Amino acid sequence: MRVLAGLDGSLLDPEAPLLRADDLGALRGDGVFETVLVVDGRPRELEPHLGRFARSAAMLDLPEPDLDAWRRCVRAVIDAWPVGEEMALKLVYTRGPEFGDGSTTAYAMGLPIGEGVRRQRAEGVSAITLERGFAPGHAERAPWLLLGAKTLSYAVNMAAVRYAQAHDADEVVFVASDGSVLEGPTSTVVVVNERTLRTTPPSSGVLPGTTQGALFRGAERAGWTTKVEPLRVEDLRSADALFLTSSVRRITRVHTLDGEALANPERAREVQAVLADLYEAEYI
User: Fold this and answer.
1) What value does the CA radius of gyration of the chain take, rounded to a whole number of Å?
2) What cellular component GO annotations does this protein have (predicted)?
3) Facing residues of 108 across strands?
4) Which helix (H) or strand (E) holds 265?
5) Per-residue three-class SS string for 57-86
6) What are the chain's domains?
7) CA 184, CA 246: separation in Å to the nearest integer?
């Protein structure tokens, strides 16, 4: 099941060609995207996603996206999706054809949630730490690196995941050249100690997480403490629980890091259940 819509809200045939062969999104990854989880017909964190979408577009010097048009496009896909089925809704915006008239390419596509994702939500994942080759201060010193933008240039991220899978792990936690923790290829790192949640600051060059933001809001309302501050790999190992958060996988427990099982697995499962309830309460 797939649903495809243009920016004008018209439904398109998902089996028919859509991009020109010289579209810069395909040729160079010159574009941005967002993935929004839709549950029971309601898009989660749509406005934060759209805000991040606009920020990413600005970082690439793309024309400012018409967010009202994107909202209509989102609604067109949701209205055509089967009632009661979860959906991963992708918003895609590219610079358009290299030899075109200067117009951009924009569309939204709804996709089902895979069984592998559902299994990872329930069972957790193993992860390895991999270098990403820059220091935390690079985001400010080198804005052309587009650190913190959600671009279509995901080849490195996907290569990292394949490397992990070839080395008996499911996922990756990127670390900076100074050993500090960054993020996952498609996720935000969250550690828990007692009733305190911590994550890496965007100033380190990571993508601000929408699911992490919702989780922190829910935790704060319940009296938990949240902190956005630098993390080290040893913080991940000593935590009560370690999670990777993302729109589609929600709050996924990491049970093994660099080949070693993390301590207190029962405590980590308990924390996951509590955090899942706090996160879900944001949408009741």
Assistant:
1) 19
2) cytosol
3) 5, 91
4) helix 265-280
5) HHHCCCCCCCHHHHHHHHHHHHHCCCCCCC
6) 3-113 (3.30.470.10), 118-283 (3.20.10.10)
7) 9
Each residue's pLDDT tens digit in the chain (284 positions)? 899 999 999 999 999 999 999 999 999 999 999 999 999 999 999 999 999 999 999 999 999 999 999 999 999 999 999 998 999 999 999 999 998 898 999 999 999 999 999 999 999 999 999 999 888 888 888 988 899 999 999 999 999 999 999 999 999 999 999 999 999 999 999 999 999 999 999 888 899 999 999 999 999 999 999 999 999 999 999 999 999 999 999 999 999 999 999 988 999 999 999 999 999 999 97
0.85 exceeded by the pTM? yes
Environment class of 206 (CB within 10 Å of its CB; exposed 0-12, middle 13-18, buried 19+):
buried
- Distance, CA of 83 to CA of 137 (rounded, Å): 46
